[in-house]
Amino acid sequence: MAGWTIWSARSRRLLSSRWRLLQQPEVRGGVSGRRRLCVAEPGLRPRRDKFGGVSLHLTQLRSPESLDQAAFGRWLQGKCLLLEACGETQDRAQSDQSYTDTDVSTTEIERAIKQWRAEGHIAVWLHVPILQSRFIATAAEQGFTFHHAESDSATLALWLAEGCSRLPVYATHQVGVAGAVLDTHTGRVLVVQDKNKVRNTAVREVFEETGITSEFKSILSIRQQHGQPGAFGKSDMYIICRLEPSSFHINFCQQECLRCEWMDLTELSKTKETTPITSNIAKLLLYGYREGFDQIDISMRELPAVYTGLFYKLYHRELPENYRNVTDMQ
Q1: What is the pLDDT of residues 42-78, one digit of tens each?
Q2: Into how many domains does the chain fold?
Q3: Same domain membership, residue 262 and residue 198
Q4: Could you give the angle at the alpha carbon of 83 between the alpha carbons of 82 and 85, nearest 5°?
Q5: Which end of the chain is more exposed for a tag (fewer CB within 10 A), N or C?
Q6: 101 within a domain of the structure (yes/no)
Q7: Is 94 within a domain?
Q8: Is residue 257 part of a domain?
Q9: What is the β-pairing status of strands 123-129 and 53-57?
Q10: Spatial CA neighbour of 248 closest among 256, 265, 260
């Protein structure tokens, strides 16, 4: 018996450090005194964010395939830094087709940038679909830099405010989710011998990889590792969940697992033929199995978010009923 691990389903997600966002100055409204500075590309509607930046999506262009790099460069010089911050003048600008790129001089651009900075505008976001990647080099010549990329698009940013850019970094953490499936009736735990890392959520992947259906019960533990090579040098958070099986017949995926079986939890907690994290989780499960899972579980409650109609999940140690209704306490 070698290399056993508590069944582990890993789901990778990149998370941004949200505290950085709170450092962004608030946008201050203002209306440009000159209509010439409000010219906008037909079909392109810049959007302001709550941090004082504006976003441009090239997917909104009516005929992006007909736009060459030279024209795009002229457009960036004359338009990108001249986006109107006030909604009423922005609407008027978008319907005004009487001005062209050549109508905006360098002096006007400099004046517009100065005015925008005085009004609190701090950045421009440029969203480029992968099929329009030819425009990225042109944007870079105007000072844009990469911020992040997805499978089908890249997002570039241009910092307008004084000093070093304070735009939030795109991702600082990678998150993995693992499922420890324990049969509380028999004291057996589901273990596998991996071929590859599994990268999806615990309950679904437990079924897909082992054929076992299960139910989420709690979070047991969270491991954090900085500078993880498998996460491109980002921090890695590994969340281990306690699952309870509702079926027991194993039909494992031979592409992902070499072996899969139910093993006695006490035996797994004693073996040295496993990883340190599996050994520790097995001992944690054994403690909960013998002394009560309320001693180890991190429970979940769904609560209403500040955004209407949305909810979030809050994980913490179980709160006694009398503390949930603390207003009733003496």
Answers
A1: 445 556 666 566 666 766 555 555 556 666 666 565 5
A2: 2
A3: yes
A4: 125
A5: C
A6: no
A7: no
A8: yes
A9: parallel
A10: 260
Same domain assignment for residues 232 and 148: no
Q: What is the pLDDT of residues 217-247, one digit of tens each?
A: 888 998 888 887 777 788 888 888 899 999 9
Question: What is the rounded distance in angstroms from the CA atom of residue 134 to the CA atom of residue 145?
Answer: 14
Residue 111 counted as domain residue: yes
Distance CA 293, CA 290 (A): 8
- CATH, residue 189: 3.90.79.10
Other C-beta atoms lying within 10 Å of the C-beta of residue 71: 13
225 and 119, same domain (yes or no): no
**Same-domain pairing of 183 and 206:** yes
124 and 243 both lie in a single domain: no
Range of the domain at 110: 47-81+106-159
List all residues 6 or more positions away from 292 whose beta carbon is below 8 Å from its beta carbon: none
Per-residue pLDDT band for 4 (boundaries 50, 70, 90) equals: low
Cβ-contact 193, 5 below 8 angstroms: yes
**Contact between 314 and 303 (Cβ < 8 Å):** yes
CA 316/CA 324 separation, integer angstroms? 13
Helix (H), strand (E), coil (C) string for 244-272? EECCCCCCCCCCCEEEEEEEEHHHHHHCC
Which of 223, 196, 228 lies closest to 209, judged by CA? 196
Compute the residue count for the chain: 330
Report the DSSP beta bridge partners of residue 245.
214
Q: What are phi and psi of 241, to 5 degrees?
A: -105, 150
d(C-alpha 254, C-alpha 260), whole Å: 9
pLDDT at residue 128 tops 50: yes
Residue 65: burial class (beta carbons within 10 Å; 0-12, 13-18, 19+): exposed
Q: Which two tokens stand for residue 203?
A: 């309950």
